[in-house]
Amino acid sequence: MSEWVTINEVGPRDGLQSLGKVLTVEQRLQLIQGLVDCGIAAIESTSFVSAKAVPQMAGATELYRQLPNVANVRYAALVPNLRGYNDAVAAGARTVNVVLSVTDTMNLKNINMSLEQTAQVCSDIMKQAKADGVNGQAYLAVAFECPFEGAVSTDVVTEFAKQMYSAGAQKIIIADTIGAANPARVITLLTQIAKVLPLSQVACHFHDTRGMALANVYAALQCGVREFDTAIGGMGGCPFSPGASGNMATEDAVLMLEQMGYKTGISLHELTAVIGTVEGLVERKLGGHSYNWLKRQYLQNNEQGAHCG
Amino acid sequence: MSEWVTINEVGPRDGLQSLGKVLTVEQRLQLIQGLVDCGIAAIESTSFVSAKAVPQMAGATELYRQLPNVANVRYAALVPNLRGYNDAVAAGARTVNVVLSVTDTMNLKNINMSLEQTAQVCSDIMKQAKADGVNGQAYLAVAFECPFEGAVSTDVVTEFAKQMYSAGAQKIIIADTIGAANPARVITLLTQIAKVLPLSQVACHFHDTRGMALANVYAALQCGVREFDTAIGGMGGCPFSPGASGNMATEDAVLMLEQMGYKTGISLHELTAVIGTVEGLVERKLGGHSYNWLKRQYLQNNEQGAHCG
To answer: Among B105, B104, B123, B124, which Cα is nearest to B115's?
Structure first.
């Protein structure tokens, strides 16, 4: 089996935004360079928002102009509104992400807008991106469960997937914001979505809050999904469940994919090494479930003769 | 979906044996009672070995005579040889486990016997158990990868599964001793084994060394396996990969199974609470990937209104 799976690294945006520490533009570029050097070819690099609201993302234009290896890496910019979209495109962004939480309460609590309003804004941005020849990607957040409204119906998610796709989104990302999905629900939802758009244009963003992220990736792979969001070292927790895991660790996903025979283009050795570098930058211990094993496998001399692997 | 899945709790034997601390018989019974109170109905309670070799398992006969709720819980005893088998049966054991590592080097390094010798001993015990009306279960260890010999062929594992089954084993447990399996390999191996014995008589023992235990459980479920070994709080590491995970945490497996609609008969609330009790007994922090979320879900008052659940 030698099918390709795209790992979309969200550490520089989603991961950093969740952490307290504010990195300079230079530090963020250093982080991104480290990831690119591992072979990562899709990165959510920053968001174009008010620096006052999200200081971790200040200097997005400056960052965008210095991104490394732009010819071979798909860099995406998160944009919350048309103004952010225009700033992103002016800065050179060729791929833009919008986020639509699929329940009213989540939108109201998160960004003080109704579901209908947010859907309209996202739709407008996707249409504009399409018209401008910019790659538009639409996230459907709390796609399995909303922390306020509970379980989300697959009909609702499918309807919004269709809406964003019709508006011109080139990719729909199903985001399990609070890590509530399980493999059976993943299959159910993706099977339904597959009736309204090709799964080659669907990606998944799983959280590991309940420990099921990799199992969910496997279920999604079985359905035909070939792109997943991950964060280096599992950077970025669950804001609704303090102490619990958030983003799935890039190294965990790459390890499983590579061991199953998929191609990611990413070097596990380099990835394992770069986690230490990132830890230094964010001043926090990182590492997914496989990190200890990966360090032993790739970073230590093993003199016993016995080894796992 | 309301199919039953059996969780076989190995904390009291496999888990404890990996930890340094030696618990008294009374403490081990306290641990077991706590697990039984959660609804766990299959437990690997102890092993019948020399107390000098394995002090954590001393007093096995005394323990067996005081096991709680024997009418409703399937208690198993690990036995390394016919002497241990006889001691176990004399103590009242109705289910016995043997372990056959499927490579020569693993047997030689582990117990100083060849593969052929160990297979013979295990086979003899299975035959004796069958003759005595005792439930015999055979573990096939390093079933995916041996720390010394590398990847293990599915033909070899299948051959030994057939051999143990023919000798009278009522259950064959496929044990991924160093956590090297991935979902694709799980499917390949189980599909082959299904040709020589019914998968209703096969269980899986996955380790989480590389983070894939739950994904592997899901793959095995898809094949028709309905029994899994787990350890409360993920007790017991990987001796070949210090610092890395070993046993899959009972709470992680039960959470996924229950969320997918399977019945385990186990209360997640009680399970979450008992982890704290076990931590007190073994004097070590425990908890699988879902533990933080479980604690928040079941053990804390959540006053914000917002919750992940």
So the answer is: B104
